[in-house]
Amino acid sequence: QVQLVESGGGLVQPGGSLRLSCTASGSIFDINAMGWYRQAPGKQRELVATLTNGHRETYADSVKGRFTISRDNAKNTVSLQMNSLKAEDTAVYYCNAHTLVWPDEFDYWGQGTQVTVSS
């Protein structure tokens, strides 16, 4: 079991910045990737950015060049720096931890944090 607690989020004007953080606890040694997903009203949850233990980064095309994912393994945290925010970035953002204990894989989710981009 992995527990995820998110912080950050809130209301920001277009062009502004926010930083999301997520701290993992529990079976953290089973985690092989962490990341962020988001879900806007009426839409499906989508990948924003992920970072594997091997330092491989993946970004949604819509956030490339604006968002940066990072991990602090000593603190068991993953962060998402979001710059140049747009109205279409408005969504609930969820922290994700992907575990692999061969042959089983599982995804854990945080409770979600609201990001609203509006003037």
Characterize the largest beta sheet: strand count, sense, and whether it forms a barrel: 7 strands, mixed
Total beta-strand segments? 11
Question: Helix/strand-derived class?
Answer: mainly beta
Mean pLDDT figure: 95
Work out the strand percent: over 45%
Low-confidence residue ranges:
none
Helical content stands at under 10%
Gap from first CA to last CA = 40 Å
Task: Give the H and E element order.
Answer: EEEEEEEEEEE
Shape: elongated
Instruction: Count up the helices.
Output: 0
Global Rg: 14 Å
Identify the notable features of this structure and list them briefly:
mainly beta; 119 residues; 60% strand; 7-stranded mixed β-sheet
Explain this structure to me?
The protein is mostly beta strands and 119 residues long. 0% of the residues lie in helices and 60% in strands. Strand 9 (91-101) and strand 10 form a beta hairpin. The chain is elongated. It starts with a strand and ends with a strand.
Task: Write a compact overview of the structure shown.
With 119 residues, this protein is an all-beta fold.
Write the layout of secondary structure elements.
Layout: E1 2-7, E2 10-12, E3 18-26, E4 31-39, E5 46-52, E6 57-59, E7 67-72, E8 77-82, E9 91-101, E10 104-109, E11 113-117
Parallel strand pairs: 2-11
Antiparallel strand pairs: 1-3, 3-8, 4-5, 4-9, 5-6, 7-8, 9-10, 9-11
